[in-house]
Each structure stands twice: as structure tokens, then as C-alpha cells.
Design brief:
This protein is mainly α. The protein has one domain. It is rod-shaped, with a radius of gyration of 61 Å. It starts with a helix and ends with a helix. Keywords: ATP synthesis, Cell membrane, CF(0), Coiled coil, Hydrogen ion transport, Ion transport, Membrane, Transmembrane, Transmembrane helix, Transport. Belongs to the ATPase B chain family. It holds the Pfam family ATP-synt_B. This is ATP synthase subunit b. One of its GO terms (cellular component) is proton-transporting ATP synthase complex.
Length: about 160
């Protein structure tokens, strides 16, 4: 008998022993158990993926709402800034108009004061000149009468 024969007998005995102690059943159960574990892990992964997708959708919805709210706030701020700018422009225009009116009023008053001062000076000079002319051409009694008459006329015109 050669070595091949004994190797075949050893193999048959080994396979018989394996079947006797139910190794194929244990391997099958082990593989089934492993397949069940893998199936459970896949189910868990699928559930987690669905939860992650739900969370992603929720966060995207919140992000869109936040972006819409931010856009609304920005638009409101821009409207308010435009209103404030317009209000400031109007107040500035009103201030400038009031200052111009006040300046024009002061200028008119200064013109009126200057005209009054010139008239007063002209009257004083005219009265003085008339007095000198009259004094040179008339006698003392006529001078007094004319002076009193002129002063009365000037006073009536000034008042």
C-alpha cells in the first residue's frame, strides 16, 4: 500500500469525523449567524441613513427659512436706511431753506438800516447847509422864523 492510499483513508476518516461532530452544521449555523448579523447591520445602516436624510432635509429647510428671514431683515434694513436717508435729506433742505430765509431777512434789515442812516445823514447835512445858506442871506429875525419853520417841517416828516 502506498502513501496515496493512506492519504485517501486519512482524508475519508477526517471527513467522517467532521460529519460525526457536526462541523458542517456548526459552520452553517455560524455562517447563518454571521449573515443575520450582517443583515441587522445593513438594516441599522439603512435606518441611520434614513434618519440622516431626514435630519439633512430638516436642516436644509431650517437653512432656507434662515436665509429667507435674513433676506427679509436685509430688505427691512435697506428700507429703513432709505427712509432715514430721505428724512435726513428733507431736514437738511429745510434747515438750508430756513438759514437762507434768515440770511435774506438780515440782509433786508441791514439794507433798511443803511437807507435810514443815509436819509438821516442827508437830512442832517441838508438842515445844516440850509441853515448856513439862510444865515448868510437873511437877517436875524427872518433866520429865526425860517429855522423854526424848517425844524417843524423836518420833525413832522420824520415822525
Amino acid at each position: 500500500m502506498d502513501a496515496t492510499f493512506w492519504a485517501l483513508i486519512g482524508l475519508v476518516l477526517f471527513l467522517g469525523l467532521m460529519i460525526y461532530i457536526k462541523v458542517p452544521g456548526m459552520v452553517g449555523r455560524s455562517l447563518d449567524k454571521r449573515a443575520d448579523n450582517i443583515r441587522g447591520e445593513l438594516d441599522e445602516a439603512k435606518r441611520l441613513r434614513e434618519e440622516a436624510q431626514a435630519l439633512l432635509a430638516e436642516y436644509q429647510k431650517k437653512r432656507k427659512e434662515a436665509e429667507a428671514e435674513a433676506a427679509a431683515l436685509l430688505a427691512a434694513a435697506e428700507r429703513e436706511a432709505a427712509l432715514l436717508t430721505e428724512e435726513a435729506r428733507q431736514k437738511t433742505e429745510e434747515f438750508v431753506a430756513r438759514r437762507n430765509a434768515l440770511s435774506e431777512q438780515k440782509i433786508k434789515q441791514a439794507e433798511a438800516d443803511a437807507i435810514t442812516a443815509v436819509k438821516s445823514a442827508a437830512i442832517d447835512i441838508a438842515v445844516e447847509a440850509a441853515g448856513k445858506v439862510i444865515a448868510a442871506k437873511t437877517d436875524k429875525t427872518t433866520q429865526t422864523a425860517l429855522f423854526k419853520d424848517a425844524v417843524a417841517k423836518v420833525q413832522s416828516r420824520l415822525n
